[in-house]
């Protein structure tokens, strides 16, 4: 019994380590005191490099749109379409990862009836992936994007860029609550199933003496 339970504890810890995010960011650094701050190409927002024209770091609830997580988020369209990128340096080559992030539109024009904002997410092999959001989409709040990619090396570039600033309206594409986690491989799923089998066996073994005494 002790051996089975010890193995189960070790398996649970191993599974948790695989499922835990290897990277998260909600753009809480640097903390700003104004409604937003513009970062031009060549500068940095925290550990992110800024490209394109510029991006805005936005603070809520000072700004009308609340953050998906924490108090701040990125608008990929500052004075024009911008981009952010950084290296993820703790990945395992050829391991599959899952990229999750929140996004929504920032439509400021009083009549934003036409067009949509487009963004590009790039990480390792399997991406880039284009994301798009219309004015109607943006009224429904933050949306979740879940994308899989394979790490090409221990240091893999992760980037988000705005492809357009929209048509007949002003605003931007907002990004927040980014997470990267390893996807369990087939043998890890097999270990998880084996662990569940051990749990069932241990429960039955514990019940048998009680039944005999009754």
Low-confidence stretches: 1-18, 187-192
Give the N-terminus to C-terminus distance in angstroms: 21 Å
The DSSP helix count reads 3
CATH topology: Jelly Rolls
Structural class: alpha+beta
The largest sheet is: 7 strands, antiparallel
What is the average of the pLDDT values? 79
Write the layout of secondary structure elements.
Elements: H1 2-19, E1 21-25, E2 36-40, E3 44-45, E4 48-52, E5 54-59, E6 72-75, E7 82-88, E8 96-107, E9 117-123, E10 129-133, H2 135-138, E11 143-150, E12 156-162, E13 171-182, H3 186-213
Antiparallel strand pairs: 1-13, 2-5, 3-4, 4-7, 5-6, 6-13, 7-12, 8-11, 8-13, 9-10, 9-12
Helix pairs in contact: 1-3
How would you portray this structure in words?
The protein has 214 residues and is of the alpha+beta class. The protein has one domain (21-183): Jelly Rolls. It contains three helices and 13 strands, in the order αββββββββββαβββα. The protein has helices spanning 2-19, 135-138, 186-213, and strands spanning 21-25, 36-40, 44-45, 48-52, 54-59, 72-75, 82-88, 96-107, 117-123, 129-133, 143-150, 156-162, 171-182. Strands 1, 2, 5, 6, 8, 11 and 13 form a seven-stranded antiparallel beta sheet that branches. Strands 3-4-7-12-9-10 form a six-stranded antiparallel beta sheet. A hairpin with a 2-residue loop joins strand 3 (44-45) and strand 4 (48-52). Helix 1 packs antiparallel against helix 3 (186-213). It is globular, with a radius of gyration of 23 Å.
């Amino acid at each position: 019994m002790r051996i089975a339970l010890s193995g189960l504890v070790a398996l649970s810890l191993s599974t948790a380590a695989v499922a835990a995010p290897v990277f998260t960011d909600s753009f809480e650094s640097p903390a700003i005191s104004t409604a937003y701050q513009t970062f031009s190409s060549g500068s940095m927002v925290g550990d992110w490099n800024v490209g394109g024209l510029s991006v805005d770091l936005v603070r809520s609830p000072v700004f009308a749109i609340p953050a998906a997580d924490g108090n701040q988020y990125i608008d990929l369209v500052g004075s024009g379409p911008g981009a952010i990128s950084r290296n993820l340096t703790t990945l395992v080559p050829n391991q599959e990862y899952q990229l999750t992030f929140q996004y929504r539109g920032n439509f400021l024009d009083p009549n934003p009836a036409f067009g949509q904002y487009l963004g590009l997410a790039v990480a390792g092999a399997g991406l880039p992936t284009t994301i798009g959001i219309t004015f109607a989409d943006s009224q429904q709040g933050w949306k979740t994007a879940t994308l899989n990619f394979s790490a090409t090396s221990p240091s893999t570039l992760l980037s988000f860029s705005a492809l357009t600033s929209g048509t007949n309206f002003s605003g931007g594409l907002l990004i927040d609550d980014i997470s990267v986690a390893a996807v369990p491989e087939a043998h890890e799923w097999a270990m998880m199933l084996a662990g569940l089998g051990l749990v069932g066996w241990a429960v039955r073994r514990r019940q048998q003496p009680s039944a005999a005494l009754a």
